[in-house]
Design brief:
single chain, 2 domains, two-stranded antiparallel ribbon, 2 strands, globular
């Protein structure tokens, strides 16, 4: 902030957020699906409100525009990943990888324990890969298909998948957010994971217990009777074999070997197309609409599956719905939402409105419990306003980095809170990059699954409870020689 720029009052800084809240509520009440355009416009109108607030405070449009550009730039990796996820979903469906997963899932999984199994499988894959996005885009797509076929509500299934995926992402040493949080707080990765496990493990155990109870309350009798017909429809259309699992196994291996998400997803997409050409010639010809020249058919079907909506006719409407994909084109609406959200977050940050709100709130955090609760609330606030989980970790991390040691609290208290509240709540907002992405990939609205993301809802509550109850709050003692001694 320059000498010519004024600091806004708390109420003035909150005006754009109030405008956004009102518009989002109106969109929710008036439109059945506001993510198709109304919410994007709401974010742009709220961003322009922030501009109107900032100009009289001495900010130039060029400064605010730079904030918007920087914010959108920070989201570009996520946008590129989102496009590749759309392409990967298309080739993996055409190649029979996802249909094969659905087939064996219907054969093995019991409807009663399906939600628990979906959560555990997602957790294992995310723990191995360190990526909730990759997990949801691969096994998550198959699991949503299996759950739908079993007659379980898509919101519940998505909640189970996301709960497991974010647990695994959070606890994996390969995860970017798991490395980012301790870096912001000033502790090391191993200490962070060990300390985070104290709140994370109870959260996932409670989550699994809830899903187990839900499993016993779901009536899947009618749908279970049609499972055999669905399996027959899939096997009659696709070549179903465990050999198709080689492709996802290669992708998981690449990510475990710390290959970046973009090249790993690209390789998975190409391998999916190759597998389709080798194992699914009839499906390739159907998608291409060309049967005279198989080379042309293969090229045409590969391009279509990666870029646009494709479908096959398995002779059963329920199965046809499961086997349709949208390619990269299906991700464009989500990208539109992300860009608009980044515009709003960029203006709010560039004008100092977000920092004014959060610093005002920090003043009320007097006790250890209230400090942790304020940190958690700040992370959620940035997920809702800045629309990016990385900002929800980085900005609060910088804000509270010195406050925790000043209060005699070890830095792992901060890093744990950043993950418990920043990483996991990002998916609960439809305009956040995470919420928009998972909703698009699973084809389930955030409004339909957020209440079933029990792990994501419980985690911030758990860390706040630990703070107020004084459970496993590691403290430090600042000595005169500036050294720190950890109190057990």
């Amino acid at each position: 902030m320059t000498s010519k720029q004024k600091s806004p009052s708390f109420l003035l800084a909150f005006v754009p957020i109030l405008v956004l809240i009102v518009l989002l509520i109106l969109n929710f009440l008036i439109f059945e699906d506001a993510t198709g355009g109304p919410n994007q416009i709401a974010l742009i109108l709220a961003a322009m409100t922030a501009v109107i607030v900032a100009i009289p405070l001495g900010y130039k449009w060029e400064q605010l525009q730079k904030g918007i550009v920087d914010s959108i730039t920070s989201a570009l990796p996520a946008i590129l990943i989102l496009l590749l996820i759309g392409a990967l979903a298309g080739t993996w469906m055409m190649s029979g990888i996802v249909p094969t997963m659905i087939y064996y899932g219907l054969e093995i999984l019991n409807p009663t324990i399906f939600l628990v199994a979906a959560c555990i499988v997602s957790a294992i894959v995310a723990l191995a890969t360190g990526s909730s996005w990759t997990t949801v885009a691969t096994v998550g797509v198959a699991l949503i298909g299996i759950g739908t076929a079993l007659g379980i509500g898509q919101g519940m299934v998505a909640g189970a998948i996301i709960s497991g995926a974010y647990f695994g992402d959070k606890m994996s040493p390969l995860s970017d957010t798991t490395n980012l949080a301790p870096a912001m707080a000033g502790t090391d990765l191993v200490t962070h994971i060990r300390y985070m496990a104290l709140t994370t493990v109870p959260s996932i155990l409670i989550t699994l217990a809830i899903f187990l109870i839900l499993g016993f309350t779901i009536d899947t009798k009618e749908s279970s009777e049609g499972v055999g017909a669905m399996m027959e429809a899939i096997s009659s259309k696709y070549y179903v074999s465990p050999v198709l699992f080689i492709v996802p196994a290669i992708v998981v291996f690449l990510i475990i070997k710390k290959v970046s998400a973009l090249p790993a997803l690209f390789i998975g997409t190409i391998l999916g197309a190759v597998a389709a050409i080798i194992f699914q010639p009839d499906v390739v010809k159907e998608i291409a609409g060309e049967s005279s020249n198989y080379f042309i058919s293969s090229y045409k079907a590969s391009m279509k599956s990666m870029s646009m909506s494709t479908s096959v006719d398995a002779g059963m409407n329920e199965v046809n719905k499961l086997l349709g994909t949208k390619g990269m084109a299906g991700m464009l609406n989500t990208i539109w939402l992300i860009v608009c959200a980044m515009c709003f977050g960029g203006v709010m940050e560039a004008a100092g409105l977000l920092s004014k709100i959060t610093h005002t709130i920090v003043k009320f955090a007097k006790s250890t419990g209230s400090l942790i609760a304020t940190t958690a609330g700040t992370c959620v606030f940035f997920n809702a306003t800045a629309s990016d989980q990385y900002l929800a970790i980085v900005v609060p991390g910088k804000m509270f980095e010195d406050i925790y040691p000043e209060r005699g609290l070890a830095p792992e208290n901060l890093s744990r809170t950043l993950e418990d509240a920043g990483t996991v709540t990002s998916v609960l907002f439809p305009w956040n990059t995470c919420g928009a992405t998972q909703s698009s990939v699973l084809s389930v609205a955030v409004g339909d699954f957020w209440m079933y993301c029990f792990f994501n809802l419980i985690s911030p509550i758990m860390t706040i409870v630990y703070g107020y109850a004084g459970i496993k709050i590691k403290k430090i003692e600042v000595k005169n020689d500036s050294t720190q001694e950890i109190k057990n």
